[in-house]
Amino acid sequence: MMRAARLLLAAGALAWAMPAAASHDWGGIDVCSAYRSSAPPGIDPASLPQPESRGAHLLTHYCTQCHQLPGPGRHTAAEWPAVLERMLTLMDVSQRFRGLMGHVRAPSAAEREALHDYLMRHALIALSAAPREPQASSFAARCATCHALPDPRLHGTAEWPAVVARMQRHATVMQRGHMPEHEIATIVDYLGAASVPTVRILGDPHGAARHIAVPPVTTAVEAGGAGRLLHLTPFFAVAALGILRWGRWRRRERRAGGGGGSS
After folding, report:
1. Is the alpha carbon torsion for 198, 204, 208, 209 positive or negative?
2. Phi and psi at residue 24, in whole multiples of 5°?
3. What is the pLDDT of residues 24-66, one digit of tens each?
4. Whole domain around residue 237: which residue ranges?
5. Are the C-beta atoms of residues 171 and 219 closer than 8 Å to each other?
6. Half-sphere exposure of 204 (CA within 13 A, CB side)
7. What is the DSSP code string of 9-32?
8. Helix (H, G, I), strand (E, B), or coil: what is residue 29?
9. Is residue 141 located within the same domain as residue 246?
């Protein structure tokens, strides 16, 4: 029971810290459905930066075991190390449940390093401070509810309409509300005016030259201990389910062992 209690505490601690995002069955729960308001829709592997690279293949292979495929632009270079560490620890804990929490494979040390480098190299480049222009108010209010505010120079003027349309579709799936057409037009106009049509910002491969991220706006679910505990109920339920399954497995093993000894 002490081992089971430690596993439950480990699972609870991970769940407390991680921004839950899962789309596949994990311990009997579809976490993406349960956490639709915080789990972004997945992307097509072909749309990943350098889709044929080792980092892209590792991201697709390991991350889609438990959730939809995230793009490296989901987080900034300042955010990815902590996010990746939580996900790797969760995979390690899942392995220790011997498949009871879902059959999850964990990457090797070399694969972890390659995945880290890929995410850092293609991470979201964020503004160092929120824009103060009056015409940027909708951009700052809407986009920061899901991620750090992107630098407008990440895309050219002609590219932003498609990017904003894709983000609106994601926001609809995540139940963040639907923007009226005039607000979408305002955001697109601001980003187009603030972007550089033919020049992109390129940070160094390790993210040292990137802008400091602006923290996303805290959602109502994340505010307050009681609300967060309620938000994490599925994770505690999954941990408890895993412990129950482990206990039943142990009892079956003991009965089988006892039967073999008596014969």
Report:
1. negative
2. -110, 165
3. 555 566 666 666 666 677 889 998 999 999 999 999 999 888 7
4. 2-124+224-262
5. no
6. 3
7. HHHHHHHHHS-----SEETTEEHH
8. strand
9. no
